[in-house]
What we know:
Blueprint: H1 8-20, H2 32-45, H3 60-74, H4 79-83, E1 85-88, E2 91-94, H5 107-118, E3 124-128, H6 134-142, E4 147-152, H7 155-167, E5 173-177, E6 192-197, H8 212-215, H9 232-240, E7 245-254, H10 260-269, E8 272-278, E9 284-291
Parallel strand pairs: 3-4, 3-6, 4-5, 6-7
Antiparallel strand pairs: 1-2, 7-9, 8-9
Amino acid sequence: MGLAAPRVGQLLTDGRTVLRESTAIDHWRASIAREDAADLLALALGVATDALDPKAIVPTRAALRYLEFLQRRAAGEPVALIRGVVDFAGLTLAVRPGVFVPRGSSELLAQSAVAALRRRSVKVAVDVACGAAPVACAIADALPSAEVWGLDIDPAAVALSLANARRNRLGNAHFRVSDLLAALPRRLHGEVGAFTMHPPYVARREVRTLPREIRGFEPRHTLTDGSPDGLGLVRDLVEEAPGWLRRGGVLLFEVAPYLSRSVQALMRQADLEVTVHADPGGITRVVGGRRKG
C-alpha cells in the first residue's frame, strides 16, 4: 500500500482488498470488508464514517495507523475491540478483551423487554449472562423508573457492566457476580417483569468450526455452555426463572433461528405462553415465554 500522499478512496480500496482476502473474518455479508475498512479509516482519522471524502489526502501518521488497524482486523480482531467502544441502542459502551462483544442484533432483545415492561406499573428487569451489559443498560435507559439487574458469572464482565452504567449515567442499573440467579436479591422473588438472556448457545463440538474472529477473540464460556446442543443454560433458566416472574411476566432468549423451535418447546414444557419476535428481515431472533395469569 503506497503511503506517499495517499487519498481516502485509494486507502479504502486497498483496505477492502486486504480484508476480503482474510480467512479469519466471517464474510457473512458481502459488504463486511467495505464497512470495516471505512470504520477503521474513520477511526484512524478521528472522524465519522460519513465524513470520509474519497478525494481527501490522508496524513502519513493516520495512514500508518490505518494500516495497523487493517492488519489487526485481517488477523480476526473484531472492529469493536480495535475501537474500544460500540454503539448500542443510542448508548456508547466500552468493550475489552475477555468480555463478550455486544452485537447489534441484541437490540431486539432489549426492545422486546422494554415493550413488555411498559405495560407494568412495577418494572423489574433482570439480564442474565449480561456481559458488557448492552441489554441491561438499554432497558435502564429506556425505562428510567425500572429497577434493572445484570448478572454474570465472570467478575470481569460485571466490572465492565458497572463501568458502562456509570458512563451512561444509569443509576437504576445494578450488577452482581452470580451463577444464574443465585445472587439476585430474594425480595425480587415473584416481582420480575422480564428476564432476558443471550445465552452461549453454540453446541460443544461446533465451537471449533466458528470463524477465528469469534473463537479467537471471545471467551469460550460466552460461546458455549459445554452442552451437546448449546441449550444447557437455557434449560436451567427456564427451570429457575418462572418462580421469580410476576403474573404476565416474560422470559426472553436471543438465540440463533435454528434453535427457535427447541427453545419454544422448553417454554411450553414449563407451562409458559410462547411468543416470538422477528428482526426487520422477518427472521426469529427472540423467543419468549409469558407466565400465565
